[in-house]
Structure prediction request, 106 residues.
Amino acid sequence: TQLNATAIHKEVAVRLLNNQGQEVKGFIDMLVETKDEIHIIDHKSFGSGNTSRETLEEEALKYSGQLASYAEIVSLEYAGKSVRTWIYFVVEGLMVGVINNSIIGR
Prediction:
């Protein structure tokens, strides 16, 4: 995926008190700003170098809750920009988009 970044941030600390009164906090591996969008990219080392895309997509869905929380936090900071979330499988060199517990582009 080619992103026309206007800014790139690494290891972004995030924190939010959600509607259930629970504290959500963590670190976003990479946050990429473009003119109209914010991309949250979480790096994972899952894979063997020849893992099937289907298996990687199944693995990516395991992180949909985490990504949704990060997107909620980031959308408050970047009002007016759409937020997209990705898992980047570093061993495979593949990014998989995840939104609302679904794979983007499936």
User: Anything to note?
Assistant: The chain has a mean pLDDT of 90. DSSP finds two helices and six strands in the chain. Residues 64-77 form the longest helix (14 residues).
